[in-house]
Amino acid sequence: KAGVTQTPRYLIKTRGQQVTLSCSPISGHRSVSWYQQTPGQGLQFLFEYFSETQRNKGNFPGRFSGRQFSNSRSEMNVSTLELGDSALYLCASSLTSGGGTDTQYFGPGTRLTVL
Amino acid sequence: DAKTTQPNSMESNEEEPVHLPCNHSTISGTDYIHWYRQLPSQGPEYVIHGLTSNVNNRMASLAIAEDRKSSTLILHRATLRDAAVYYCILRPWGIQGAQKLVFGQGTRLTINP
User: C-alpha B14: how far from its chain's center?
Assistant: First the structure.
């Protein structure tokens, strides 16, 4: 079974631009979560989608948004990029939207650099 | 979100056992204890999880204290490939939207050849 794939792997943008990152979950997985990883703040939860609905959201400004399609693929968008948005963006998929015993499978991430 | 405390770093030698501690004194009765690790230049990967009893899988063992306020991840024979940042995470059971993993700073494990 193929793992979680993220595209693109690397991206360079300038301040003020917007960017869209894509995530394809493991086949059969319906939950997709997004995380931001920076050296200063570590790994932080952005949001989770399950069956095309946002189920949970982290503490990020409205410039960060996402969506999920009927095939469970997900995209996240960051508008009006700031230098501080430079980070590794990770996508994780899981079978369900429940907690407890469910396992999240992470992709390799998209490295975004904002100049 | 329930909090976990881990040492910032640990060091061990190849082929020796490694015990990675985690304190979670505010754990609730329905919190599962999960461990993930992040190898260099990769996304995190699941290692093991448990609720009350000790657990074993092909990667590691998880020892949970009787009062559940602490746990220890055990790598029985460390290899160089086990060098990573290890995260101990508490996950509530059965709560909608509980896919939010709250990562702390984790423990950076160095393995010496």
Answer: 19
Chain B positions in Cβ-Cβ contact with residue A102 (cut-off 8 Å)? 91, 99
Partners of B62 in the β-ladder: B55, B73
- In angstroms, the CA A62 to CA A76 distance is 12
Q: What is the pLDDT of residues B38-68, one digit of tens each?
A: 999 899 999 999 999 999 999 999 999 999 9
Question: Average pLDDT in the B78-90 region?
Answer: 95
SS3 assignment, position A26: coil
- Check if A59 contacts B (Cβ < 8 Å): no
Mean pLDDT of chain A: 93
Q: Which of A31, A101, A108 sits opposite B43 (nearest CB)?
A: A108
Distance CA B73, CA A60 (A): 32
The beta strand positions in A10-115, using DSSP E, are 10-13, 19-24, 31-38, 42-50, 53-57, 64-68, 74-78, 87-94, 105-106, 110-114
User: Residue A97: what pLDDT?
Assistant: 67
Whole-number average pLDDT of chain B: 91
- The helix/strand count (H/E) of chain B reads as 0, 9
**Nearest CB partner across the interface for A100, out of B43, B91, B104:** B91
Are A101 and B100 a contacting pair at CB < 8 A?
Answer: no
The kind and range of the H/E element at B38 are: strand B31-38
| B42/A contact by beta carbon, under 8 A | yes
Rounded alpha-carbon distances, angstroms, from residue A47 to A41, A83, B13, B16, B60: 16, 21, 39, 39, 29
Rg of chain A over all Cα atoms, to the nearest angstrom: 13
